[in-house]
Design a protein that fits this description.
The protein is mostly beta strands. It contains no helices and eleven strands.
Length: 136
C-alpha cells in the first residue's frame, strides 16, 4: 500500500516526477513533473477555443469548445461552485442557464477535464472565467 510521497528519477539523477499517495490513491493535484534537465514541466491547462451564449426557448445556453484533451476525456462543469449538467458532443459542451427577463447575472463558470495520464493515473485540468448574461 502506497502512502506518502513517491518519486522517480531520470538516469542522470534529476527528479523526473513526484506524486503523493494517500491510502494507495494518487493525489493528482500533487503531481510535479520535471524535464531531464531539471526544469519543471509546464502545467497543463484546459484550453477553451471559443465560448458563446445563445438564448433559446427562454433559456440561455453557454456553448464551450474544448481543444486539447484526448477523445476519451470527460468533463465537469460548475456554476458558482455548484455542479452543473454539461452536455458533451465532439468536444463541445453546453450548459443551460435560466435567466429571468430583465435580469443581469454574473456567474463564475469552472470547467474541469479528466483524462488518463502516464502510469494510468487520472489527471485533471481546470479553467474558470466570469460570465455576464443579461436577459432583455
Amino acid at each position: 500500500m502506497k502512502d506518502g510521497q513517491y518519486q522517480e528519477f531520470w538516469k542522470n539523477g534529476n527528479l523526473k516526477y513526484s506524486l503523493d499517495y494517500q491510502y494507495n490513491y494518487a493525489l493528482d493535484e500533487t503531481l510535479r513533473e520535471f524535464k531531464s534537465t531539471g526544469n519543471k514541466k509546464k502545467d497543463n491547462v484546459l484550453i477553451i477555443d471559443e465560448h458563446n451564449t445563445v438564448k433559446k426557448d427562454g433559456k440561455y445556453r453557454l456553448y464551450v469548445y474544448f481543444a486539447d484533451l484526448p477523445k476519451e476525456a470527460y468533463y465537469a462543469a460548475y456554476v458558482d461552485g455548484v455542479s452543473h449538467i454539461l452536455e458533451m458532443q465532439n468536444k463541445k459542451g453546453v450548459i443551460k442557464i435560466d435567466v429571468p427577463p430583465g435580469v443581469f447575472l454574473m456567474k463564475k463558470i469552472q470547467f474541469e477535464g479528466f483524462y488518463k495520464g502516464r502510469r494510468k493515473t487520472v489527471k485533471s485540468v481546470k479553467r474558470s472565467f466570469n460570465l455576464g448574461i443579461e436577459s432583455l
